[in-house]
Amino acid sequence: MSSRAQGFLVESPLINEDTAPSSFPKEKDRTLRKSPTFRVLGGGAMALGLVAVGTTIATASGGTEISPVSSGGADTAATADDQLTALQRDLGLTSEEATRLLDTQAEARKLDSELRTKLGDDFGGSRFDIDSGELTVAVTDKAAVDTVEKAGATPQVVTYGMSGLEKIVDDLNEERVSLSDGVTGWYPSATDDAVVVTVLKGRKAAAEKLIAGAGVQADAVTVEETTDKPRTYADSFGGDAYIINGSGRCSIGFAVEGGFATAGHCGAKGTPVAAQSGGGTGTVAESYFPGRDMGYVATDANWTPTGFVNDYNGGAVSVAGSQEAPSGSSVCRSGSTTGWHCGTIGAKNQTVVYPEGQVAGLTQTDVCAEPGDSGGSWISADQAQGVTSGGSGDCTSGGVTFFQPLNPILREWNLTLSTS
């Protein structure tokens, strides 16, 4: 019986560091550093959920099982330490600061969810400040300021808000552009209360044409130049993963009842897949790419889904749910090439222009990744966030990585996330 962990990470297209999309948007301007302000925040019980991939183990009968490490005792303590170590390494925090961050962030995530519901149409977006532990909630109606303040968050009155900006994004998505046009993507910026369109250097006219063609308000859009050109690619090389159509390599995102969620570019509907051990097989049951980057693989009985992910340090960590974390929150990614890395969530609902076409609805982060990490699990504390779609840079020099949010995948095909 093999005990080697296989990553639940699809080898989705990653963007080459020399041809990546524009630099991380203004949501990422915050330098990742140890913060004196954050050190004085009150502590509490540490959130134990870790970002990782589901581990698969070849069973004696030849099948493939997603097998968790024990959820109690020394194993739980070890995986908690692993998460703290990753946060300290990638965010420049002390052990105490990392522990407080997880606890404070869990409270902010809960508060964010409550205010989204309570404010309804007045909710204009939110962002979490990793240095101060403060949650800022934008509102489109001054009358909602009191509600935000009483809840314990900082209000910001805006004109458009995320709902207004997302309508502009939808209008831009209706336009068809290519990299040859000079436009590399667009996203709504909660910080600027505007939609940011990124273009190749010297090609602002392409953005102006896009904006005019979509018929959106020019004063609600800003244009930023970049020298980077996004493109997607997938490599076929060894590692802990599953095999696509007998040759390509991908990894699982999150286990769901009957299979697993993953990135859509890993295979069109009907594509056969198999566990790297050869014990389990499956078929891509649903897939969208481009447009969105979401997929669902239906597996046979030799694959048993469980609510755990691989921490790439000999253990596995539990998944408790899929509550969305606000921008600015810390997030961790597990990948079969580079293992486990952490960073922060930046712009949401970003559209990226790949050579294959536009992909909308992605979330941008400052977490590094490399080819083979694509499609992997993203978690903030113990809450599943998404699967890797693409990125730039590497885990030596750093980079930017996008993920396809998980909840739209679950809703699209009525899937049930496996939790522990």
From TrEMBL:
Gene Ontology MF terms = peptidase activity
Q: Which UniProt keywords apply?
A: Disulfide bond, Hydrolase, Membrane, Protease, Serine protease, Signal, Transmembrane, Transmembrane helix, Zymogen
Q: Which organism is it from?
A: Nocardiopsis rhodophaea
Q: Name one Pfam family in it.
A: Pro_Al_protease
Of which family is this protein a member? Belongs to the peptidase S1 family.
Q: Where is this region: Disordered?
A: 1-32
* UniProt-listed InterPro entries: Pept_S1_alpha_lytic, Pept_S1A_streptogrisin, Peptidase_S1_PA, Peptidase_S1_PA_chymotrypsin, Streptogrisin_prodomain
Q: Does the keyword Lipid metabolism belong to this entry? A: no
| UniProt signal peptide | none
Instruction: Tell me where in this chain the Peptidase S1A alpha-lytic prodomain domain is found.
Output: 161-218
* UniProt protein name: Alpha-lytic protease prodomain-containing protein
Residues crossing the lipid bilayer are 38-60
Query: What's the superkingdom here?
Result: Bacteria
Would I find Signal among this entry's keywords? yes
What is one GO biological process annotated to this record? Answer: proteolysis
